[in-house]
Amino acid sequence: MRRASRAAAGPAPRRLRPATAWLPARRAAALLALAATAALALVVVGASPASAHAVLERADPAGGTALDAAPERVTLGFSEPVRVTGDSITVIDGSGERVDTGETRNGASAEQATVDLRPGLPAGTYIVSWRVISADGHPIAGGYAFGIGGPPAAGAVAAANAAPTGSTAVAWTSGVARLVTFAGLALLLGAGFFLLALWPAGLAQRPARLLLAAGWVAAVVGSVALLLLQGPYTLGRGLSSVFTWEPLGTTLGDRYGRLTLIRLLALLLAAPLLRASVRGAAGTAPA
Description:
Layout: H1 2-9, H2 24-47, E1 56-60, E2 66-67, E3 73-78, E4 82-83, E5 89-92, E6 105-106, E7 112-116, E8 124-134, E9 139-148, H3 154-161, H4 168-198, H5 206-235, H6 245-252, H7 255-284
Parallel strand pairs: 2-9
Antiparallel strand pairs: 1-3, 3-7, 4-8, 5-8, 6-7, 8-9
């Protein structure tokens, strides 16, 4: 009789585990991954092109000077270490012909950039144009003129002060990529910490999962775009150079590029931990 009454009553209700008790180890690992990503994001913000850049403090020969003899080289000194490429400093004469060797390098210190000049330069006006990369990853550029055998021509001084500019399309696209990256990071980190630390049961809700996914995708896509665009941006190239090795190698060689790459790797490593946490939360939710 007792067995019959139990059968008639139907199966016993399934006992549900509390939502706050799901997979604590994976939740802690996911929180740790998000904390590491947040720390890297803050470091990259400090190293981003919004930070203060290097400033030209001295030049040899200096702008506007009149030299009695041709110099052997042009040396620039900046307020902080700079990264240079072979064409970071160009020197042309009054007819527009280059008179440097095209092999710009760092000088006695990382704050200096120097390039050798052809020997035996004749008297006349010479225009120096430079474009280097600050420690924050931002390109800075400028120019000046000097003279041999007399002061430089006034028109040359005005032309030298017109600093060369890079691609407007690259600068605009980089700005959009930066906005997408940090908007995605803000969404991912804000929603992730709230759900993992304060409301783990919320991970079982589809809108919450979509917020996490949208933030992660935006942060990853934006970081990849920044990694590809930073090189053309700093070198003054166009969008056609985005998928060439030289700009990417330049980016990976500086602090900004390395930190962006580490941030991207942290996001990729956080993905499986977040996925496991979401699945664990969904598995403990009522059917």
